[in-house]
Amino acid sequence: MSHKRILSSKEIKEFKISEDRKLFSAEHNEILEGLTTDVYFVKTYEILEAMDKLDTEVTVEVFARSYGVFCGLPEALALLEGTGAEVWSLNEGDFFQAKEVLMRIKGKYSNFGIYETALLGVLASSSGWATAAKEVKEAAGDRPAIIFGARHVHPAVAPVMERSAIIGGMDGSSCILGAKLAGIEPKGTVPHAVMLIAGDTLKVAKKYDEIMPEEDARLVLVDTFKDEAEETLRIAEEMQGRLQGIRLDTPSERGGVTPSLVREIRARLDLKGFTDIMLFVSGGLTPERIVQLKDAGADAFGVGSYVSGAPAIDMTMDIKEIDGVPVAKRGRIPGITYTERLIKHEIL
Q1: Is 14 a member of any domain?
Q2: pLDDT of 53 higher than 50
Q3: In the predicted model, what is the mean pLDDT of residues 41-67?
Q4: For the packed helices 116-140 and 287-296, what is the interaxial angle rounded to 10 degrees?
């Protein structure tokens, strides 16, 4: 094995949390060592070792209890590196049906059984986020949808969540690490904080235009101080063709971003000849609201909590063969499940 693993009750009792630990999230080596596993898998290891059955060859299958978008494959394969197991799975980004086999693993139980908890957690959470992202993108259609969800989850998993949203179909990520992991550059405007500190939206817009790279969109948040339509026209006129878009993030205390507000701003911009200025909307968006705002004239969407708060997709790992002999717990069908969708992966 390429890394040490916790494989006994004695090792668990001896493991101590460092007094200078700053964050509660698991570090990479702790996951690989099995410290995020359920303790009963360690006990399983000890029992099988005592019965001289630890190296029993098994074939297991992972399936989900509901439909979704398959996500988390690179991390799952990383967990299985060095185990000597054979692995098959769907492609990342594939849509799956309830009870469909998502992954099959064949090898010595002693080499990979300890990772069942972590592997299921990776796939369940990532697929849940990717599935919600797919729903967002289907609602947005040909208009961009950016994931703004990092602030709603623990920072340790924020990059995983935002990468999953990209796999699910969204067009960009505001989280720096999430975007980089997805192979893209992060996207985002500026928050209300800079407007409040500077004291004037127009001053911020002009300074942004002056100092930011030319490839960064000139897209200004307009709901901090004034009526959104008034602020939009003021900035559009002052920036003399440099304004590419405005962002509407009206708080719920003021009614949020409504279709009527979007229609009004679109109409006022068009009447002044600013037909090319796009309307980017954010704030508590759901697929249903996206459809309504798109019909009203919104051009792009920033979505956070709908994706970040999506439930994990319940997944199960079942042993289907032992030394080549079909087996199953009661209620399940023994033997590997026929499917032509799985592809084999080469892992070290």
Answers
A1: no
A2: yes
A3: 94
A4: 20
For residue 185, what are its two tokens?
Answer: 């550059």
Both 135 and 199 in a single domain? yes
Looking up residue 206, the CATH number of its domain turns out to be 3.20.20.70
Q: Report the amino acid identity of residue 251.
A: P
3-state secondary structure of 80: helix
Task: Give the CA-trace dihedral at 49, 28, 132, 258, to 10 degrees.
Answer: 150
What is the spatial distance between Cα 274 and Cα 265, in angstroms, rounded to a whole number?
A: 11
CB 161 within 8 A of CB 128: no
3 state DSSP class of 318: strand
Mean pLDDT of 205-232: 95
CA 330 to chain centre: 34
Name the average pLDDT for the chain: 94
d(CA 74, CA 6): 23
Interval 163-200: pLDDT, tens = 999 999 999 999 999 999 999 999 988 999 999 999 99
Structural domains of the chain, count: 2
Residue 332 sits in the same domain as residue 254: no
What local confidence, expressed as pLDDT, does residue 1 receive? 46
- When pLDDT is cut at 50, 70 and 90, the band that residue 3 belongs to is low
Percent of the chain at pLDDT > 90 equals 87
Q: Residue 6 has what DSSP assignment?
A: -
Helix, strand, coil abundance in the chain, percent, nearest 5 = 40, 15, 45
In terms of DSSP bridges, do strands 245-248 and 278-282 run parallel, antiparallel, or are they unpaired?
parallel
- In order, the DSSP letters of 253-317 are GGT-S-HHHHHHHHHHHHHTT-TT-EEEEESS--HHHHHHHHHHT--EEEE-HHHHTPPPPPEEE
Distances (CA, A) of 340 to 25, 100, 221, 337: 38, 11, 49, 10
Structural domain including 62 reads 22-127+311-345
| Residue 146 and residue 269 share a domain | yes
Same domain, 169 and 37: no
